[in-house]
Amino acid sequence: MELWYTEEHSEHVRFSIKVDKQLCSKQSRFQRIDVFESPEFGRFFTLDGLMMLTEKDEFIYHEMIVHVPMATNPNIRRVLVIGAGDGGTVRELTRYSTIEHIDMVEIDEEVVNVCRELLPQTACKLDDPRVSLRFEDGLKFVRSKENEYDLIIVDSTDPFGPGEGLFTREFYGNCFKALTEDGILVNQHETPYYSTYAKSMKRAHKRIKEFFPVCRVYQAHIPTYPSGHWLFGFASKKFDPIRDLDADRWNALGLAMRYYNTDIHTGSFAIPTYVKELLAGDEE
Amino acid sequence: MELWYTEEHSEHVRFSIKVDKQLCSKQSRFQRIDVFESPEFGRFFTLDGLMMLTEKDEFIYHEMIVHVPMATNPNIRRVLVIGAGDGGTVRELTRYSTIEHIDMVEIDEEVVNVCRELLPQTACKLDDPRVSLRFEDGLKFVRSKENEYDLIIVDSTDPFGPGEGLFTREFYGNCFKALTEDGILVNQHETPYYSTYAKSMKRAHKRIKEFFPVCRVYQAHIPTYPSGHWLFGFASKKFDPIRDLDADRWNALGLAMRYYNTDIHTGSFAIPTYVKELLAGDEE
Fold first, then answer.
1. Which residues does the record give as S-methyl-5'-thioadenosine binding sites (chains A, B) (predicted)?
2. Domain A58-280 -> CATH class
3. Can you tell me the distance from the alpha carbon of A21 to that of A39, in angstroms, rounded to the nearest whole number?
């Protein structure tokens, strides 16, 4: 027999992965959680059927969402991570001894339980003593915070389902307030290539720009996400990701990477003309 | 009913596109040629079942294979294009009034006939008076050439089937000889992500490096190619694609683009650490 997982990247495009075995399938209060074992990608994990990560390429997403802000401002001490129940973002953050505290706010405890059990590759640092895990709505959590974090990473699901509120004006305004004057916000920004996703990207970008004086977009090649062309939003109160990068200083840390390097840091902010036009255009 | 085209990106990964209609299917002396109409990508064209281009994203491949060398050396006058029967590479080249002559050598005349009929979006400039179309084996054609071209673009199919000889040591050596002292060679280089393709990339890179003093790799996001992460090899006798880029001069040409811009020119040479390691490693 053959077993195939299929994700619809658009109504007319399907991406299918041969599966050896389904390791877990459960319905939490918020969403359906599945983990599969596959010959090409190792284990992979989906929420409501949408790809969250594979063991083969999660390093790309997690290195790019963490090291771009960390190399821009090495003095980041306090970090808030919203979403990211798989632990990959926290794993990369804990590599910096200079980080003192990480609040990780994940709405769905069941996601963390499943990942601890089946995805140790990403969940391995959730017990780091600097990490404080909270199972609540990130949107509500951030409302009461003021001047507390040097970095907020919004590692949300797609803006359909439980992640939806994380793409609103109110949310980004509260993030601004929760950040110190050195504050940086990084947001997973979807793909520009398929129209449903591009709409979310434009909306997020436009809303973040209402609050943050510095607002840039960078990209990475993530083969198992729709189109493989994934964007991140970089917003800050004062740091510019290119001007303020001190490559020698970051390289002196000696952190071994598989995707990120300080050339790609700068290079990833060079985005295609059609993406620039989408970002500059009106929200539909 | 539903009609779906499926390409195997690896033995364990499938990419499927909903098709409205198959517009053409023929077997030439060299390969099977198909053209389809689809709601997501417009028309698309395959050889031996492998995706060559879609109307939606062919601009990315063609802009990146042409404008990177053209912006590096604006004095390119004589160009040899090998493969590229769809005409997209020639279309982009003909936008430069400074180019005097283009030899296009395509092994399979049937490909050009089909594209002229069904893909006018790419084939539209094949009748430009500067273009000399030859239907023969590029490998043989280039053997007799010496000091003739300022630019050779190897826009080949994957190195399985008729394109295979275009990935050999003999071929790259002959390209070196066919180039002037200002010569640049650009080679489509496959994806680093899936192992079969990565092997071809490593082999091509290693062989090109035996002849050319400047040898770099750049990348683009091409959603309908395997993994969406596509590489190009840039090799030259003296021009460095970053040092010799004069962005102001190229921008003064006023050519409208959808993907390429002079920031992405430089940014595309910043490649992930794992790709650098593949390129530096031994051939398997």
1. 31, 106, 137-138, 162
2. alpha beta
3. 10
